[in-house]
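FIELD: query
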Amino acid sequence: MEQMNISESSVRCLNSSAWSVDSLEFEEELVIQRLEIAKRDLQHGIKMEVSGNAILQANLERKKQVLHKRRLELETLQEHLCV
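FIELD: result
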């Protein structure tokens, strides 16, 4: 059986390269996880904004209706006073 002659420095280089690749993959995974967390946070923020906007829009519509009703009342009152 033939014996392979691999020097210690070659093994260290291979181990170092493997560690380097593993390290890069780990760092990439961390970046991906951070981005996914940021994405979820932004999506949650958007949902909160949409909900808040819907409440504000409903309040605005209600106030517009109240003002319109009051305007009609004032116009009616003015007509009675001018007659």
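FIELD: remark
The mean pLDDT is 86.
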